[in-house]
């Protein structure tokens, strides 16, 4: 029998939340858990984390198998490792089931996460905690009693990542200043069209972000304020910084990587973020954080960490839940309640 396998085709935040299931499966089975995922963020996020075995990637969820050399290579790699107990974390499993079947897996090997009647809570972390106590038929097929309560993601940042970050911050001119992180963009920001389009339910106006940045500068005159994101979010950050017109503020999006994001969050005094993957990364390394939510509610998606102080904000606009109902003063008031870290220039304090 091959090693246990966890399948999740998720965005960055989804894969952070998945560490709950990885940790508990590893604890229960005593074997590293292989992960099958997608996207360029999955390997740098999960490889080397406790309890994680081999990370496999599907190169495209849409491309037919016969047009994808990467999928053929993945099938060969899964066949070589051998079929084993498999936990499927996505609702649409048709393509992955076809892929697993080609790799020699059968329905006795896998189980899904539907049908639970005793979830400890509505959050996705609660679901993945409970799912870690389900067995596929090859392991008996029973739902075991839930014997744990630690339903939070957890990421470890290595000394090498921290050292690399310090070198990079020195080269960027930030040096050993204490850090405040701001994540204004989200994956919808990167799509074509105006940022304020109706479908971008996590859009918060640039002027409001600028007001928050000015407020942070007043409250923390000695801190560096670092705006995060991927390269496509750099223009958004640049506009916010032009409007804010404060000193010692940096747009880090052009050079951001997942390991660098993890190390920044492990070092920072705190973070303010829209509901996004980086918010989940920050909480998973116990960074204090204020998170702004749009249509999706924090009941299911609030960032969590073992010791993370988290404040979640929601608002109402035109009679519906909306991020546009949140004002800059709300964000700064929530920030004022956070127990900020002292300067953690060499990683976690």
List keywords for this structure.
single chain; 349 residues; alpha/beta; Rossmann fold; 2 domains; six-stranded parallel β-sheet; five-stranded parallel β-sheet; globular; disordered C terminus
Briefly say what this structure is:
This protein is of the alpha/beta class and 349 residues long. It contains twelve helices and 13 strands.
Task: Characterise the protein shown here.
With 349 residues, the protein is α/β, with parallel strands linked by helices. 35% of the residues lie in helices and 14% in strands. Strand 9 (270-274), helix 10 and strand 10 (289-292) form a beta-alpha-beta unit.
Write the layout of secondary structure elements.
Elements lengths: L4 E3 L4 H18 L3 E6 L3 H5 L5 E7 L10 H13 L4 E3 L5 H9 L7 E2 L12 H8 L27 H14 L6 E5 L22 H14 L4 E4 L6 H11 L4 E3 L6 H10 L2 E5 L2 H8 L4 E4 L5 H4 L8 E4 L2 E2 L2 E2 L6 H9 L13
Parallel strand pairs: 1-2, 1-4, 2-3, 4-5, 6-7, 6-9, 7-8, 9-10, 10-11
Antiparallel strand pairs: 12-13
